[in-house]
Protein backbone atom coordinates (compact mmCIF):
# COMPACT_ATOMS: atom_id res chain seq x y z
CA UNK A 1 0.00 0.00 0.00
CA UNK A 2 1.21 3.50 -0.80
CA UNK A 3 1.80 5.79 2.14
CA UNK A 4 -0.88 8.43 2.43
CA UNK A 5 1.03 11.60 1.63
CA UNK A 6 -0.74 14.98 1.68
CA UNK A 7 -0.65 14.83 -2.14
CA UNK A 8 -2.33 11.44 -2.36
CA UNK A 9 -4.82 12.49 0.28
CA UNK A 10 -5.72 15.54 -1.85
CA UNK A 11 -6.01 13.38 -4.98
CA UNK A 12 -8.56 11.16 -3.27
CA UNK A 13 -10.41 13.69 -1.16
CA UNK A 14 -10.69 16.57 -3.64
CA UNK A 15 -10.50 14.89 -7.04
CA UNK A 16 -11.95 11.51 -6.17
CA UNK A 17 -9.25 9.46 -7.92
CA UNK A 18 -7.58 6.46 -6.28
CA UNK A 19 -4.03 6.54 -7.56
CA UNK A 20 -1.61 8.73 -9.42
CA UNK A 21 -0.86 7.92 -13.02
CA UNK A 22 2.56 7.65 -14.66
CA UNK A 23 4.95 10.29 -13.37
CA UNK A 24 2.28 12.33 -11.59
CA UNK A 25 3.29 11.32 -8.06
CA UNK A 26 6.92 12.18 -8.65
CA UNK A 27 6.21 15.46 -10.42
CA UNK A 28 3.72 16.57 -7.78
CA UNK A 29 6.04 15.60 -4.95
CA UNK A 30 8.89 17.53 -6.54
CA UNK A 31 6.88 20.72 -7.10
CA UNK A 32 5.08 20.50 -3.75
CA UNK A 33 8.48 20.60 -2.03
CA UNK A 34 9.51 23.71 -3.96
CA UNK A 35 11.31 22.24 -6.99
CA UNK A 36 11.14 23.57 -10.55
CA UNK A 37 9.89 21.20 -13.25
CA UNK A 38 9.49 20.94 -17.00
CA UNK A 39 6.84 18.38 -17.87
CA UNK A 40 6.31 16.80 -21.28
CA UNK A 41 3.25 14.63 -21.31
CA UNK A 42 0.91 13.77 -24.17
CA UNK A 43 -2.61 15.16 -24.32
CA UNK A 44 -4.84 13.38 -21.85
CA UNK A 45 -1.85 12.33 -19.75
CA UNK A 46 -3.05 14.24 -16.72
CA UNK A 47 -0.96 17.41 -16.65
CA UNK A 48 -3.50 19.56 -14.81
CA UNK A 49 -3.21 17.65 -11.53
CA UNK A 50 0.55 18.21 -11.64
CA UNK A 51 0.03 21.86 -10.70
CA UNK A 52 -3.44 21.72 -9.15
CA UNK A 53 -2.43 19.41 -6.30
CA UNK A 54 0.78 21.29 -5.40
CA UNK A 55 -1.29 24.51 -5.40
CA UNK A 56 -3.59 22.94 -2.82
CA UNK A 57 -0.87 21.39 -0.72
CA UNK A 58 1.39 24.45 -0.54
CA UNK A 59 0.54 27.62 1.36
CA UNK A 60 -0.68 30.48 -0.82
CA UNK A 61 -2.18 30.72 -4.29
CA UNK A 62 -1.02 28.72 -7.32
CA UNK A 63 -0.84 31.02 -10.36
CA UNK A 64 -1.51 29.27 -13.67
CA UNK A 65 -0.45 31.09 -16.83
CA UNK A 66 -2.59 29.85 -19.68
CA UNK A 67 -3.28 31.12 -23.21
CA UNK A 68 -6.68 29.44 -23.21
CA UNK A 69 -8.76 32.42 -22.26
CA UNK A 70 -11.97 30.97 -23.66
CA UNK A 71 -11.67 27.99 -21.33
CA UNK A 72 -10.84 29.79 -18.10
CA UNK A 73 -14.43 30.11 -16.96
CA UNK A 74 -14.98 26.37 -17.53
CA UNK A 75 -11.80 25.46 -15.69
CA UNK A 76 -12.70 27.65 -12.73
CA UNK A 77 -16.25 26.27 -12.65
CA UNK A 78 -14.98 22.70 -12.69
CA UNK A 79 -12.61 23.41 -9.80
CA UNK A 80 -15.28 25.26 -7.83
CA UNK A 81 -17.53 22.23 -8.19
CA UNK A 82 -14.81 20.23 -6.42
CA UNK A 83 -14.61 22.79 -3.64
CA UNK A 84 -11.38 24.39 -4.85
CA UNK A 85 -11.30 28.18 -4.49
CA UNK A 86 -10.32 29.35 -7.97
CA UNK A 87 -10.54 32.53 -10.01
CA UNK A 88 -9.18 33.98 -13.23
CA UNK A 89 -7.92 37.27 -14.59
CA UNK A 90 -8.02 38.06 -18.29
CA UNK A 91 -8.76 41.03 -20.51
CA UNK A 92 -12.27 39.93 -21.42
CA UNK A 93 -13.48 40.63 -17.86
CA UNK A 94 -15.31 43.70 -16.66
CA UNK A 95 -13.27 45.82 -14.22
CA UNK A 96 -15.54 44.98 -11.29
CA UNK A 97 -15.19 41.25 -11.95
CA UNK A 98 -11.45 41.68 -11.96
CA UNK A 99 -11.51 43.65 -8.72
CA UNK A 100 -13.44 40.90 -7.01
CA UNK A 101 -10.85 38.29 -7.96
CA UNK A 102 -8.01 40.60 -6.92
CA UNK A 103 -9.62 41.16 -3.55
CA UNK A 104 -9.98 37.43 -2.97
CA UNK A 105 -6.37 36.88 -3.94
CA UNK A 106 -5.05 39.51 -1.51
CA UNK A 107 -7.26 38.17 1.27
CA UNK A 108 -5.63 34.76 0.80
CA UNK A 109 -8.95 33.26 -0.24
CA UNK A 110 -7.82 31.70 -3.51
CA UNK A 111 -6.19 28.29 -3.95
CA UNK A 112 -5.63 28.88 -7.65
CA UNK A 113 -5.56 31.85 -10.00
CA UNK A 114 -5.67 31.43 -13.79
CA UNK A 115 -3.86 34.29 -15.45
CA UNK A 116 -3.82 35.17 -19.15
CA UNK A 117 -0.28 35.98 -20.30
CA UNK A 118 -1.36 39.36 -21.66
CA UNK A 119 -2.17 40.45 -18.08
CA UNK A 120 1.53 40.28 -17.24
CA UNK A 121 2.12 43.15 -19.65
CA UNK A 122 0.13 45.37 -17.27
CA UNK A 123 2.31 46.74 -14.45
CA UNK A 124 -0.51 46.48 -11.89
CA UNK A 125 -0.48 42.73 -12.29
CA UNK A 126 3.12 42.61 -11.09
CA UNK A 127 2.29 44.79 -8.12
CA UNK A 128 -0.74 42.63 -7.35
CA UNK A 129 1.33 39.46 -7.35
CA UNK A 130 3.95 41.20 -5.16
CA UNK A 131 1.33 41.70 -2.47
CA UNK A 132 -0.11 38.20 -2.67
CA UNK A 133 1.30 34.98 -1.34
CA UNK A 134 2.10 32.83 -4.35
CA UNK A 135 2.67 29.12 -3.91
CA UNK A 136 3.84 28.34 -7.45
CA UNK A 137 3.76 29.44 -11.06
CA UNK A 138 2.42 26.91 -13.55
CA UNK A 139 3.10 27.70 -17.20
CA UNK A 140 0.61 25.72 -19.22
CA UNK A 141 1.04 25.10 -22.97
CA UNK A 142 4.68 26.04 -22.49
CA UNK A 143 5.52 25.41 -26.15
CA UNK A 144 3.80 28.76 -26.87
CA UNK A 145 7.14 30.35 -25.90
CA UNK A 146 8.81 28.75 -28.91
CA UNK A 147 9.12 31.21 -31.74
CA UNK A 148 9.59 28.38 -34.19
CA UNK A 149 6.61 26.46 -33.00
CA UNK A 150 3.11 26.44 -34.37
CA UNK A 151 1.48 28.21 -31.43
CA UNK A 152 3.85 31.06 -30.67
CA UNK A 153 2.43 33.72 -28.30
CA UNK A 154 4.63 36.82 -27.98
CA UNK A 155 3.34 37.39 -24.43
CA UNK A 156 4.94 34.12 -23.40
CA UNK A 157 8.40 35.64 -23.87
CA UNK A 158 7.86 37.78 -20.77
CA UNK A 159 7.54 34.67 -18.66
CA UNK A 160 11.32 34.51 -18.48
CA UNK A 161 11.08 37.35 -15.95
CA UNK A 162 8.97 35.40 -13.46
CA UNK A 163 12.05 33.82 -12.00
CA UNK A 164 13.95 37.11 -11.68
CA UNK A 165 11.10 38.87 -9.95
CA UNK A 166 9.91 36.03 -7.70
CA UNK A 167 12.98 33.83 -7.34
CA UNK A 168 11.67 31.88 -4.37
CA UNK A 169 8.45 30.75 -6.11
CA UNK A 170 8.75 27.30 -7.75
CA UNK A 171 7.78 27.01 -11.40
CA UNK A 172 6.35 24.14 -13.39
CA UNK A 173 6.06 24.38 -17.19
CA UNK A 174 3.94 21.87 -19.06
CA UNK A 175 3.39 20.95 -22.69
CA UNK A 176 2.12 18.11 -24.80
CA UNK A 177 4.40 18.86 -27.67
CA UNK A 178 8.14 19.03 -27.82
CA UNK A 179 10.96 17.55 -29.76
CA UNK A 180 14.34 17.63 -28.06
CA UNK A 181 14.97 20.90 -29.81
CA UNK A 182 11.73 22.60 -28.72
CA UNK A 183 12.30 21.31 -25.22
CA UNK A 184 15.72 22.94 -25.08
CA UNK A 185 14.21 26.16 -26.38
CA UNK A 186 11.47 26.12 -23.74
CA UNK A 187 13.98 25.43 -20.97
CA UNK A 188 16.23 28.21 -22.17
CA UNK A 189 13.55 30.85 -22.68
CA UNK A 190 11.83 30.11 -19.38
CA UNK A 191 15.08 29.79 -17.40
CA UNK A 192 14.28 26.19 -16.61
CA UNK A 193 17.61 24.65 -17.52
CA UNK A 194 18.22 23.60 -13.93
CA UNK A 195 14.68 22.36 -13.44
CA UNK A 196 13.93 18.66 -13.33
CA UNK A 197 12.66 17.45 -16.69
CA UNK A 198 9.93 14.84 -16.78
CA UNK A 199 9.38 13.28 -20.20
CA UNK A 200 6.52 10.82 -20.49
CA UNK A 201 6.06 8.41 -23.36
CA UNK A 202 4.37 10.08 -26.29
CA UNK A 203 2.78 6.90 -27.53
CA UNK A 204 -1.00 6.95 -27.81
CA UNK A 205 -1.61 3.25 -28.40
CA UNK A 206 -5.37 3.59 -28.87
CA UNK A 207 -4.97 5.93 -31.84
CA UNK A 208 -4.75 4.29 -35.24
CA UNK A 209 -2.68 6.47 -37.56
CA UNK A 210 -3.54 6.41 -41.27
CA UNK A 211 -2.35 8.55 -44.14
CA UNK A 212 -4.08 8.08 -47.49
CA UNK A 213 -3.43 9.56 -50.91
CA UNK A 214 -5.91 12.36 -51.51
CA UNK A 215 -8.37 11.41 -54.20
CA UNK A 216 -11.79 12.96 -53.72
CA UNK A 217 -11.34 14.21 -50.17
CA UNK A 218 -14.97 15.02 -49.40
CA UNK A 219 -16.06 11.57 -50.53
CA UNK A 220 -13.18 9.91 -48.69
CA UNK A 221 -14.18 11.74 -45.53
CA UNK A 222 -17.84 10.76 -45.90
CA UNK A 223 -16.78 7.13 -46.37
CA UNK A 224 -14.68 7.26 -43.25
CA UNK A 225 -17.48 8.70 -41.15
CA UNK A 226 -20.22 6.46 -42.54
CA UNK A 227 -18.39 3.16 -42.46
CA UNK A 228 -16.28 3.58 -39.35
CA UNK A 229 -17.61 6.39 -37.19
CA UNK A 230 -21.33 6.86 -37.77
CA UNK A 231 -22.92 9.02 -35.08
CA UNK A 232 -19.57 9.60 -33.38
CA UNK A 233 -17.83 12.83 -32.47
CA UNK A 234 -14.86 13.90 -34.54
CA UNK A 235 -12.75 16.83 -35.64
CA UNK A 236 -11.97 17.57 -39.30
CA UNK A 237 -9.07 19.95 -39.89
CA UNK A 238 -8.86 22.06 -43.05
CA UNK A 239 -6.27 24.66 -43.96
CA UNK A 240 -8.51 27.54 -45.01
CA UNK A 241 -11.71 29.11 -43.77
CA UNK A 242 -13.24 28.50 -47.17
CA UNK A 243 -12.62 24.79 -47.14
CA UNK A 244 -13.92 24.64 -43.56
CA UNK A 245 -17.20 26.17 -44.68
CA UNK A 246 -17.40 24.01 -47.79
CA UNK A 247 -16.63 20.77 -45.96
CA UNK A 248 -19.06 21.50 -43.14
CA UNK A 249 -21.79 22.20 -45.70
CA UNK A 250 -21.05 18.94 -47.52
CA UNK A 251 -21.32 16.95 -44.29
CA UNK A 252 -24.53 18.66 -43.26
CA UNK A 253 -25.92 17.98 -46.74
CA UNK A 254 -25.11 14.32 -46.20
CA UNK A 255 -27.06 14.28 -42.93
CA UNK A 256 -24.06 14.48 -40.59
CA UNK A 257 -24.32 17.04 -37.76
CA UNK A 258 -21.28 19.18 -38.53
CA UNK A 259 -20.33 22.67 -37.33
CA UNK A 260 -17.69 25.07 -38.66
CA UNK A 261 -15.03 26.75 -36.54
CA UNK A 262 -12.47 29.27 -37.76
CA UNK A 263 -11.14 32.71 -36.88
CA UNK A 264 -13.42 34.38 -39.44
CA UNK A 265 -16.53 33.53 -37.45
CA UNK A 266 -17.62 35.97 -34.77
CA UNK A 267 -16.72 35.14 -31.18
CA UNK A 268 -20.29 34.23 -30.26
CA UNK A 269 -20.73 31.69 -33.05
CA UNK A 270 -17.37 30.18 -32.22
CA UNK A 271 -18.23 29.85 -28.54
CA UNK A 272 -21.63 28.40 -29.41
CA UNK A 273 -20.22 25.81 -31.79
CA UNK A 274 -17.49 24.85 -29.36
CA UNK A 275 -19.96 24.40 -26.54
CA UNK A 276 -22.30 22.30 -28.70
CA UNK A 277 -19.37 20.11 -29.70
CA UNK A 278 -18.45 19.61 -26.05
CA UNK A 279 -21.93 19.02 -24.70
CA UNK A 280 -23.83 17.20 -27.44
CA UNK A 281 -23.08 13.71 -28.73
CA UNK A 282 -21.84 12.90 -32.19
CA UNK A 283 -21.02 16.38 -33.48
CA UNK A 284 -18.33 16.68 -36.14
CA UNK A 285 -16.36 19.90 -35.79
CA UNK A 286 -14.89 21.12 -39.08
CA UNK A 287 -12.18 23.58 -38.18
CA UNK A 288 -8.93 25.32 -38.88
CA UNK A 289 -6.15 24.72 -36.39
CA UNK A 290 -7.57 27.68 -34.46
CA UNK A 291 -9.71 25.03 -32.81
CA UNK A 292 -8.73 22.49 -30.25
CA UNK A 293 -6.03 23.59 -27.84
CA UNK A 294 -7.16 22.75 -24.33
CA UNK A 295 -10.41 21.14 -25.47
CA UNK A 296 -11.06 18.27 -23.07
CA UNK A 297 -13.63 16.07 -24.77
CA UNK A 298 -12.83 12.46 -23.92
CA UNK A 299 -14.83 10.69 -26.65
CA UNK A 300 -13.56 12.27 -29.86
CA UNK A 301 -13.43 9.12 -32.01
CA UNK A 302 -11.64 10.48 -35.04
CA UNK A 303 -9.48 13.36 -36.17
CA UNK A 304 -9.33 13.83 -39.93
CA UNK A 305 -6.95 16.11 -41.78
CA UNK A 306 -8.04 17.16 -45.25
CA UNK A 307 -4.88 19.19 -45.72
CA UNK A 308 -1.30 18.49 -44.83
CA UNK A 309 -0.23 19.80 -41.39
CA UNK A 310 2.81 22.07 -41.42
CA UNK A 311 4.82 20.00 -38.97
CA UNK A 312 4.89 16.67 -37.18
CA UNK A 313 4.44 18.50 -33.89
CA UNK A 314 1.25 20.10 -35.14
CA UNK A 315 0.03 16.78 -36.51
CA UNK A 316 0.75 15.01 -33.24
CA UNK A 317 -0.95 17.73 -31.25
CA UNK A 318 -4.07 17.75 -33.43
CA UNK A 319 -4.45 13.99 -33.76
CA UNK A 320 -3.85 13.75 -29.99
CA UNK A 321 -7.30 15.21 -29.44
CA UNK A 322 -8.76 11.86 -30.45
CA UNK A 323 -9.37 9.14 -27.87
CA UNK A 324 -8.49 10.85 -24.62
CA UNK A 325 -10.68 8.22 -22.95
CA UNK A 326 -8.30 5.50 -24.11
CA UNK A 327 -10.82 3.89 -26.48
CA UNK A 328 -9.87 2.97 -30.08
CA UNK A 329 -9.81 6.08 -32.28
CA UNK A 330 -8.72 7.04 -35.76
CA UNK A 331 -6.27 9.67 -36.96
CA UNK A 332 -6.78 9.93 -40.70
CA UNK A 333 -4.97 12.24 -43.09
CA UNK A 334 -5.57 12.69 -46.81
CA UNK A 335 -2.54 14.03 -48.57
CA UNK A 336 -1.77 14.83 -52.19
CA UNK A 337 0.55 16.51 -54.61
CA UNK A 338 -1.20 19.86 -54.39
CA UNK A 339 -0.60 19.95 -50.63
CA UNK A 340 3.14 19.83 -51.12
CA UNK A 341 3.05 22.53 -53.80
CA UNK A 342 0.87 24.75 -51.64
CA UNK A 343 2.95 24.36 -48.49
CA UNK A 344 6.22 25.00 -50.29
CA UNK A 345 4.74 28.14 -51.79
CA UNK A 346 3.47 29.28 -48.42
CA UNK A 347 6.93 28.89 -46.93
CA UNK A 348 8.59 30.79 -49.77
CA UNK A 349 6.19 33.70 -49.49
CA UNK A 350 6.06 33.70 -45.69
CA UNK A 351 7.53 36.54 -43.71
CA UNK A 352 10.74 36.07 -41.85
CA UNK A 353 14.39 35.63 -42.69
CA UNK A 354 16.12 32.74 -44.42
CA UNK A 355 16.79 30.87 -41.21
CA UNK A 356 13.10 30.98 -40.40
CA UNK A 357 12.11 29.67 -43.84
CA UNK A 358 14.72 26.98 -43.56
CA UNK A 359 13.24 25.91 -40.27
CA UNK A 360 9.71 25.83 -41.73
CA UNK A 361 11.05 23.79 -44.64
CA UNK A 362 12.59 21.29 -42.24
CA UNK A 363 9.31 20.99 -40.34
CA UNK A 364 7.48 20.29 -43.58
CA UNK A 365 10.08 17.77 -44.73
CA UNK A 366 9.70 15.78 -41.51
CA UNK A 367 5.93 15.76 -42.05
CA UNK A 368 6.41 14.60 -45.64
CA UNK A 369 8.77 11.85 -44.52
CA UNK A 370 6.04 10.62 -42.18
CA UNK A 371 3.57 10.61 -45.08
CA UNK A 372 5.88 8.77 -47.45
CA UNK A 373 7.30 6.24 -45.02
CA UNK A 374 7.00 2.54 -45.70
CA UNK A 375 7.67 1.82 -42.00
CA UNK A 376 5.30 1.88 -39.05
CA UNK A 377 3.83 5.38 -38.67
CA UNK A 378 3.98 5.16 -34.88
CA UNK A 379 7.65 4.22 -34.89
CA UNK A 380 8.38 7.16 -37.17
CA UNK A 381 6.25 9.55 -35.10
CA UNK A 382 7.84 8.56 -31.80
CA UNK A 383 11.32 8.65 -33.31
CA UNK A 384 10.64 12.27 -34.17
CA UNK A 385 10.14 12.93 -30.45
CA UNK A 386 13.31 11.02 -29.65
CA UNK A 387 11.53 7.90 -28.40
CA UNK A 388 11.79 4.35 -29.68
CA UNK A 389 9.03 1.82 -30.27
CA UNK A 390 8.30 -1.51 -31.92
CA UNK A 391 6.11 -1.62 -35.05
CA UNK A 392 2.61 -1.18 -33.65
CA UNK A 393 0.51 -3.50 -35.80
CA UNK A 394 -2.23 -0.88 -35.70
CA UNK A 395 -1.37 1.78 -38.28
CA UNK A 396 -2.01 1.67 -42.00
CA UNK A 397 1.53 0.74 -42.95
CA UNK A 398 1.59 -2.08 -40.37
CA UNK A 399 -1.84 -3.37 -41.44
CA UNK A 400 -1.25 -3.08 -45.19
CA UNK A 401 2.49 -2.79 -45.73
CA UNK A 402 3.15 -0.65 -48.79
CA UNK A 403 5.70 -1.98 -51.22
CA UNK A 404 8.58 0.07 -52.38
CA UNK A 405 9.63 0.02 -55.98
CA UNK A 406 12.54 1.22 -58.04
CA UNK A 407 11.35 4.56 -59.36
CA UNK A 408 14.67 5.70 -60.80
CA UNK A 409 13.67 5.54 -64.47
CA UNK A 410 10.19 7.04 -64.01
CA UNK A 411 11.78 9.79 -61.92
CA UNK A 412 14.27 10.47 -64.70
CA UNK A 413 11.39 10.71 -67.16
CA UNK A 414 9.61 13.28 -65.00
CA UNK A 415 12.77 15.28 -64.42
CA UNK A 416 13.68 15.27 -68.12
CA UNK A 417 10.21 16.43 -69.03
CA UNK A 418 10.49 19.33 -66.62
CA UNK A 419 13.91 20.21 -68.05
CA UNK A 420 12.67 19.98 -71.66
CA UNK A 421 9.70 22.18 -70.91
CA UNK A 422 11.99 24.65 -69.29
CA UNK A 423 14.56 24.78 -72.09
CA UNK A 424 12.60 24.31 -75.23
CA UNK A 425 9.72 26.55 -74.42
CA UNK A 426 11.58 29.69 -73.39
CA UNK A 427 11.07 29.26 -69.69
CA UNK A 428 7.37 28.49 -70.04
CA UNK A 429 6.76 26.12 -67.16
CA UNK A 430 3.84 23.85 -66.46
CA UNK A 431 2.20 22.04 -63.54
CA UNK A 432 1.84 18.38 -62.71
CA UNK A 433 -1.21 17.79 -64.91
CA UNK A 434 0.58 18.86 -68.08
CA UNK A 435 3.68 16.81 -67.22
CA UNK A 436 1.59 13.68 -66.76
CA UNK A 437 -0.34 14.35 -70.00
CA UNK A 438 2.94 14.63 -71.89
CA UNK A 439 4.38 11.47 -70.33
CA UNK A 440 1.20 9.53 -71.06
CA UNK A 441 1.03 10.91 -74.60
CA UNK A 442 -2.35 12.52 -74.20
CA UNK A 443 -3.34 14.80 -77.07
CA UNK A 444 -5.16 17.50 -75.16
CA UNK A 445 -5.95 20.99 -76.32
CA UNK A 446 -3.14 22.38 -74.18
CA UNK A 447 -0.68 19.78 -75.45
CA UNK A 448 -1.43 20.74 -79.06
CA UNK A 449 -1.44 24.46 -78.31
CA UNK A 450 2.10 24.33 -76.96
CA UNK A 451 3.18 21.60 -79.42
CA UNK A 452 4.18 19.38 -76.54
CA UNK A 453 3.42 16.35 -78.72
CA UNK A 454 6.61 17.21 -80.58
CA UNK A 455 8.78 16.82 -77.49
CA UNK A 456 11.01 13.74 -77.38
CA UNK A 457 9.51 12.80 -74.03
CA UNK A 458 5.94 12.78 -75.39
CA UNK A 459 4.33 9.40 -74.69
CA UNK A 460 7.34 7.78 -73.02
CA UNK A 461 5.29 6.93 -69.92
CA UNK A 462 2.22 5.05 -71.13
CA UNK A 463 3.23 2.05 -69.02
CA UNK A 464 2.45 3.85 -65.77
CA UNK A 465 -1.05 4.88 -64.65
CA UNK A 466 -1.91 8.52 -64.19
CA UNK A 467 -2.34 8.27 -60.42
CA UNK A 468 1.05 6.57 -60.12
CA UNK A 469 2.68 9.40 -62.03
CA UNK A 470 1.14 11.81 -59.55
CA UNK A 471 2.60 9.73 -56.77
CA UNK A 472 6.08 9.85 -58.39
CA UNK A 473 5.90 13.63 -58.77
CA UNK A 474 4.65 14.01 -55.21
CA UNK A 475 7.54 11.98 -53.86
CA UNK A 476 10.06 13.94 -55.94
CA UNK A 477 8.62 17.10 -54.41
CA UNK A 478 8.73 15.60 -50.93
CA UNK A 479 12.42 14.84 -51.42
CA UNK A 480 13.08 18.27 -52.83
CA UNK A 481 14.25 16.94 -56.17
CA UNK A 482 11.58 19.08 -57.74
CA UNK A 483 11.18 22.66 -56.63
CA UNK A 484 8.07 24.81 -56.85
CA UNK A 485 8.01 28.23 -58.45
CA UNK A 486 6.44 30.59 -55.95
CA UNK A 487 4.50 32.68 -58.37
CA UNK A 488 3.07 30.14 -60.76
CA UNK A 489 3.12 26.94 -58.71
CA UNK A 490 5.08 25.19 -61.47
CA UNK A 491 8.11 22.98 -61.20
CA UNK A 492 11.79 23.18 -61.78
CA UNK A 493 14.48 20.58 -61.24
CA UNK A 494 16.41 21.06 -58.02
CA UNK A 495 20.03 20.26 -57.28
CA UNK A 496 19.17 17.20 -55.21
CA UNK A 497 17.91 15.52 -58.38
CA UNK A 498 21.38 15.42 -59.95
CA UNK A 499 22.47 11.95 -58.79
CA UNK A 500 19.16 10.40 -59.89
CA UNK A 501 19.29 12.10 -63.30
CA UNK A 502 22.82 10.82 -63.79
CA UNK A 503 21.80 7.32 -62.63
CA UNK A 504 24.26 7.56 -59.75
CA UNK A 505 21.51 7.03 -57.22
CA UNK A 506 18.74 4.50 -57.16
CA UNK A 507 15.44 6.02 -56.10
CA UNK A 508 13.15 3.75 -54.12
CA UNK A 509 9.58 5.01 -54.00
CA UNK A 510 6.53 4.12 -52.00
CA UNK A 511 3.84 2.24 -53.88
CA UNK A 512 0.38 3.02 -52.60
CA UNK A 513 -1.42 -0.11 -51.38
CA UNK A 514 -4.54 -0.84 -53.46
CA UNK A 515 -6.99 0.00 -50.70
CA UNK A 516 -6.62 1.68 -47.37
CA UNK A 517 -6.46 -0.20 -44.10
CA UNK A 518 -9.64 -0.16 -42.09
CA UNK A 519 -10.50 -0.64 -38.49
CA UNK A 520 -13.32 -3.15 -38.62
CA UNK A 521 -15.60 -3.15 -35.61
CA UNK A 522 -14.48 -1.73 -32.29
CA UNK A 523 -11.57 -2.84 -30.25
CA UNK A 524 -9.74 -4.67 -33.01
CA UNK A 525 -6.08 -3.87 -32.98
P1 LIG B 1 -3.78 16.91 -20.12
O1 LIG B 1 -3.88 18.30 -19.58
O2 LIG B 1 -2.45 16.28 -19.91
O3 LIG B 1 -4.26 16.78 -21.54
P2 LIG B 1 -5.79 16.41 -18.16
O4 LIG B 1 -5.10 17.00 -17.01
O5 LIG B 1 -6.90 17.18 -18.78
O6 LIG B 1 -4.76 16.00 -19.28
O7 LIG B 1 -6.30 14.96 -17.74
C1 LIG B 1 -6.95 14.13 -18.67
C2 LIG B 1 -8.05 13.36 -17.99
O8 LIG B 1 -7.51 12.36 -17.13
C3 LIG B 1 -8.92 14.24 -17.13
O9 LIG B 1 -10.26 13.87 -17.33
C4 LIG B 1 -8.44 13.98 -15.72
O10 LIG B 1 -9.44 14.19 -14.78
C5 LIG B 1 -8.05 12.50 -15.81
N1 LIG B 1 -7.00 12.12 -14.83
C6 LIG B 1 -5.84 12.75 -14.63
N2 LIG B 1 -5.12 12.15 -13.66
C7 LIG B 1 -5.84 11.10 -13.26
C8 LIG B 1 -5.64 10.06 -12.26
N3 LIG B 1 -4.53 9.99 -11.52
N4 LIG B 1 -6.61 9.14 -12.12
C9 LIG B 1 -7.73 9.20 -12.89
N5 LIG B 1 -7.98 10.14 -13.80
C10 LIG B 1 -7.06 11.09 -14.00
ZN1 LIG C 1 2.40 0.67 -37.06
List the helices and strands and how they pair.
Elements: H1 6-15, H2 24-32, E1 37-40, H3 48-57, E2 61-65, H4 69-81, E3 86-89, H5 95-106, E4 112-115, H6 123-131, E5 134-139, H7 161-165, E6 171-175, H8 180-189, E7 196-199, E8 207-213, H9 217-228, E9 234-237, H10 241-253, E10 258-261, H11 267-279, E11 284-287, E12 302-305, H12 312-319, E13 329-335, H13 337-349, H14 354-372, H15 377-384, H16 396-399, E14 403-406, H17 408-424, H18 432-439, H19 445-449, H20 466-478, E15 482-484, E16 491-493, H21 498-501, E17 508-511
Parallel strand pairs: 1-6, 1-7, 2-4, 2-5, 3-4, 5-6, 8-13, 9-11, 9-12, 10-11, 12-13
Antiparallel strand pairs: 14-17, 15-16
The beta-strand count equals 17
Order of the strands making up the biggest sheet: 3-4-2-5-6-1-7
Strand content: 5-15%
Distance between the termini: 34 Å
Tertiary shape: elongated
Alpha-beta content class: alpha/beta
Number of helices: 21
Main beta sheet strand tally, sense and closure: 7 strands, parallel
Which spans have pLDDT < 50 for at least 5 consecutive residues? Answer: 516-525
The small molecules bound here are: adenosine-5'-diphosphate, zinc ion
Report Rg. 26 Å
Query: What integer is the average pLDDT?
Result: 91
Helicity range: 40-55%
Amino acid sequence: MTALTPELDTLRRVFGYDEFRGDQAEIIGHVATGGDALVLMPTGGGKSLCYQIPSLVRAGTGVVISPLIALMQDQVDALSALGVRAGFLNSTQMPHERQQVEKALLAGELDMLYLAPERLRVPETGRLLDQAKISLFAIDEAHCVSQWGHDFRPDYLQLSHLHERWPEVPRIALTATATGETRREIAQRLNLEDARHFVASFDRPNIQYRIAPKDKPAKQLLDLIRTEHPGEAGIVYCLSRNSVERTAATLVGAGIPALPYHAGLDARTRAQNQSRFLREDGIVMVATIAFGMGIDKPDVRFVAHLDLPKSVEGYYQETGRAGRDGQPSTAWLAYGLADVVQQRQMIETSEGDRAHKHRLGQNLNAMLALCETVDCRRVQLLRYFGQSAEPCGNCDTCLTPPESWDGTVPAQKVLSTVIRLDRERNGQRFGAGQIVDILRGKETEKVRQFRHDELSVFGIGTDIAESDWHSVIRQLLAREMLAVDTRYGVFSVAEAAGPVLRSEQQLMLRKEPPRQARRSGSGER
